[in-house]
Amino acid sequence: MNDLDLFLAESNRIVDESLEHLIPSGVTVPVRLHEAIRWSLFAGGKRFRPALLFAVGRTFEADEHKLLRTAASVEMIHTYSLIHDDLPSMDNDDLRRGRETCHKKFGEATAILAGDVLETLAFQAIAEDESLTAELRINLIIELARAAGTPYGMVAGQQLDLEAEGHIIPIEAINRIHGLKTGSLIAAAGKAGAMIGGASEIEIGAISNFSTNLGLLFQIADDLMDITQSTEFLGKTAGKDVAAKKATYPSIYGIEETRTIAAAVYNDAIACLQPIEKPTSILTAIADLTLERTS
C-alpha cells in the first residue's frame, strides 16, 4: 500500500468505529429499522467524504477526536441520500455497494424511514459533540444543512437532475446539477475539516473552492464509469444514466472530451490550494486518485 491507500484505509476504519457508537445496534427496537440502517451504512462504501474531511483536518493539524462525529455525520447524510435515490420513485435501482438496495431488502416504507433517521442522527451527532465549542457546532450544522438541502444543496440538485431526464440541456445546467447533487456535500466535508482545524477565512475559502472542484471531478468520474465499467466493478447497476436519459457530460460531449474536461477541473482544484501555506500533498493525492477514476 502507498501512503494514500494507508490513509484511506485508516480513515475508513476510524469513521466506521465512530458510526458504530452513534448508530443503534441491530437488536435495538424497532429492530427492522435499525437493521435497514446498518445494511446500507455498513455496506462497504468508499467513505470518500469523511476521508476528505480527515485529510483537510490533518492539513490544519486538527485534533483527530474533534473530527470524528462530523465525519460520521457527513457519511450518514450521504448514505441517507443513496437510500432515497435508489427508491422506485427516484432512480429505481436494485443494487448498491454490491448488495441489494435498502428498499429491495427491507421494503420501501422501511427504507424511507431509514433514510429519514440517518439524516436526523447526523445533526444530532454534531449537536451533542462536546469536544467542539457550541459556536462551532452551530456553524457546522448550518454548513451541512445548507449543503444537504435547498436551494444550494444536494436535494435541490436531485430535483433538477430528475427534471432534466430525457432533455438536452446546456452545459451550465449540467454543471449546476452536478455541483449541487454531488459537489455540495463534498465541498461541505472539506470546509468542515478546515473549520474544525481552526483555519483562517482565506484558508477556508481555498479549501471550499478546492473541494467544490473535487466534487465536480468526482461526479464526472462517476458519469464516465457508469458507461465504461461493469455492474460487478461498480457495485451498482451499470448503464443506469443512459437508460434513464440522464443529463451527463458523456451524453453531451462523449467519453474523450469528457476526460479532457475532467483534467481541466482537476487543474482548477489543484490551483485552489495555492493560498494554503501548509503541506497539502494528501489533498493533491486525493485529487489525483479522483482523476484516475476517469481513465
Structural class: mainly alpha
User: What is the residue-mean pLDDT, rounded to a whole number?
Assistant: 93
Low-confidence stretches: none
Tell me the span between the first and last alpha carbons: 21 Å
Q: What would you report as the Rg, rounded to the nearest angstrom?
A: 18 Å
Shape descriptor reads globular
Q: Please provide the count of β strands.
A: 2
The amount of beta strand, in percent, is under 5%
Portion of residues within helices: over 70%
Order of secondary-structure elements: HHHHEEHHHHHHHHHHH
Can you give a write-up of this model?
The mean pLDDT is 93. The two termini are 21 Å apart. The protein is built from 15 helices and two strands. A two-stranded antiparallel ribbon has the order 1-2. By secondary structure, the chain is mostly helical.
What descriptors fit this protein?
two-stranded antiparallel ribbon; globular; single chain; mainly alpha; 15 helices; 72% helix; 295 residues
Fold blueprint:
Layout: H1 3-22, H2 31-41, H3 48-59, H4 64-85, E1 95-96, E2 99-100, H5 102-106, H6 108-127, H7 134-148, H8 154-164, H9 171-196, H10 201-228, H11 231-234, H12 240-243, H13 249-253, H14 255-271, H15 281-292
Antiparallel strand pairs: 1-2
